[in-house]
Model the fold of this input.
Amino acid sequence: MTKKIVAIWAQDENGLIGKGDRLPWYLPADWAHFKETTTGHTMVMGRITFDGMGKRALPNRHTLVLTTDKSYQVESDRVTVLHGVEEVLDWHHQQGGTLFVLGGGQIFTAFAPYIEELIVTDIQGQFEGDSFFPETFPMEEFQLQSEQFRPKDEANPVDFIIKNYKRREK
Ligand SMILES: NC(=O)c1ccc[n+]([C@@H]2O[C@H](COP(=O)([O-])OP(=O)(O)OC[C@H]3O[C@@H](n4cnc5c(N)ncnc54)[C@H](OP(=O)(O)O)[C@@H]3O)[C@@H](O)[C@H]2O)c1
Done:
């Protein structure tokens, strides 16, 4: 089975990704894109992001939650709690398939060396929040492959662009 690690996130023009433990915007078209892309796969996210989702696993996907808290538990067979990057990589090595790195900031940083592809939603606006995509993330190691413009509409107040990157050959 193919094995791949792909980061997926949405950011505004300032690199903003979060407000408290939630997203700063409501963009159903981007959520639909996220759902379509990740359905049937495994996602890894930080404990803060998972708490912000009400500790609920998204349907039709397996969720790995990363925490240092050994007593943290989630009652769901769609969720596996793990305690370090190596544990996640071992899990991925055994299970195969595509692992989506979902964030937040700490998780993008922790998995940066292992990520092979990026799927980035660039939101054409500026929002309020307090969590930013890490400036130290090595974007220069990735090459833009394609982009798709999604114009705003009645339900989605801003334009956005979905960009696909692949890690450059060494
Ligand atoms: N725009 C987007 O696409 C997007 C996507 C995802 C999240 N977000 C936003 O990002 C924000 C949260 O980001 P964040 O950086 O504050 O938190 P986070 O990455 O979601 O979670 C951080 C937590 O993950 C655990 N953790 C991190 N590295 C670990 C490691 N190496 N080993 C074990 N556990 C580890 C720790 O949990 P413990 O404290 O329990 O040990 C840490 O406190 C929220 O606002 C959320 O909405 C945005």
